Amino acid sequence: MWDKLTALHAATKDRHINDLFDNPGRSSEFASECDGLFFDYSKTNIDAEAKAALIELAISKALETRRAAMFAGEKINQTEDRAVLHTALRNLDGPGVIVDGVDVMPGVKQSLAQMADFANAVRSGSFTGEGGKITDVVNIGIGGSDLGPAMAVPALAAFHDGPKCHFVSNVDGADLVDKLAGLNPKTTLVLVASKTFTTLETMMNARSAMAWMAKEVKDPGAQFAAISTAMQATAEFGIPSSRVFGFEDWVGGRYSMWGPIGLSIMLAVGPESFTEFLRGAQAMDRHFCDAPLAENMPVLLALVGIWHHQISGYGTRAVLPYEQRLLRLPAYLQQLEMESNGKSVSLDGEPLDQTVGPIVWGEPGTNGQHAFYQLIHQGKQIVPCEFIVGAQGHSPDLDAHHKALLSNCLAQSEALLLGRPIEDARTLMKAKGLAGAELEANAQQRVFAGNRPSTTLMYNKLTPFVLGQIVALYEHRVFVEGVLLGINSYDQWGVELGKELAVKLAPAMEDNADISALHVATASLVSRVQSFRSN
Ligand code: F6P
Q1: Which of 36, 27, 32 has its CA nearest to residue 459?
Q2: What pLDDT score does 68 carry?
Q3: Considering the entire predicted model, what is its pTM?
Q4: If you count Cβ atoms within 10 Å of the first and of the last residue's Cβ in the chain, which end, N or C, has fewer?
Q5: Long-range contacts of range 346-350, CB-CB < 8 Å, 24 or more positions apart?
Q6: What integer pLDDT is reported at residue 355 of this predicted model?
Q7: Rounded to whole angstroms, how far apart are CA atoms 78 and 141?
Q8: From the CA of 347, how far away is ligand 1's center (Å)?
């Protein structure tokens, strides 16, 4: 199948995407809709034949069987011998889900109820700090224990009616200092979020936050809660079990904000809006399970990704939310996509013969336009762009801003598609009064090649339901790409080596440490550190 796709690409790569719009039905034929979320991939070079071949590839890789295995709780994360069941966390009114002979749904519902009870207590003021009602929540976690809530909390700013949430992740003390600055320890709640409760950054930040609070609060531990799968470690840290929100090892870190790791989201927007967020994800799960492959949004998003990266050889993909409140979505997707699919060996440990996992990056529009869009439009390399935009904002009195945002977003995808040919650039320069060599040189600078692919994901307003749909859409995209490439999307061995070396190197950071046994390159940098620090 890969050969067939490569041949189709070779035969069509010089065709202009705009020529595909000779088919008047293209805009609706190369699009998909699910519960108010609309995905348009008509501005890519995928035609009916390529789409059919991509779907054949998915079928040949037994995508539907693998999908059923994931939802049924089979241990598809083979290298860690775990089920992959973040979908169970939002299976609000679905059937039971069995892992090792036990239905996990009663536990999921109980955990959601525990979160809601606590969130209601904090939000109503029946749970207080030493100084009264909780005004601020500090979530301490990193990676999957940070990026999801740190993305979702600002995304749902229009729905905030609870305490203000802050996120500390980096072991750099500056992160903690800056986030705690101005907070009143007597009305602050600290959530220590760590699946393993061993992560160096999180444990160090948690201990320092405890020391910060202990300066002014008699019983600082009473204003701490833990979110973890490691109940013994949370007890050893000194957090009583009544304020520990546990979850199971079948929830991967970067897939975990649907359960207790999402507690900060629930504290900010309340249990009802959080449930709407879960309902949006559940709607996408149902669509993913039930819609035919040719209309299935996560499948189509993944096939577009495969077409661009594996088949067309484009090395990166830009995620461009025209939605300021999704400013952390690109960072969230970097972990989701690159930690999941940045692999070099197959499920069976065989070396892969193609690259997997494109580099994901991006910034909200219109800021990106005034930064890196120059390269996107006129650079030599092609960057497939994924535009994300809502038809309406949440401030009716600023609707003019929203209309400007929309026109910018749609203009960018049209500019990428059509470009500006040399003839038009010449006309433009002529109108400015240029002539001869000067006209020609200036016109050349103003040529846009066009024929650059983009997709658009659109919805009405960014609500909790829509956010749930979008995140679940991307989660399933990662799954589909992983299945088609034959890799395990749910482990992350690539993060281990650096962590091990950091632990080994820790003693060398002490003043006057013996560095003779270090690698020469590292020793050179350590002596530079020592010399800076001695001044
Ligand atoms: O270092 C990567 C990682 O293991 C991620 O996969 C995970 O989300 C993050 O660290 C945090 O881990 P934990 O929740 O156990 O602190």
Answers
A1: 36
A2: 97
A3: 0.97
A4: C
A5: 346/486, 346/487, 347/78, 347/486, 347/487, 347/488
A6: 85
A7: 26
A8: 21
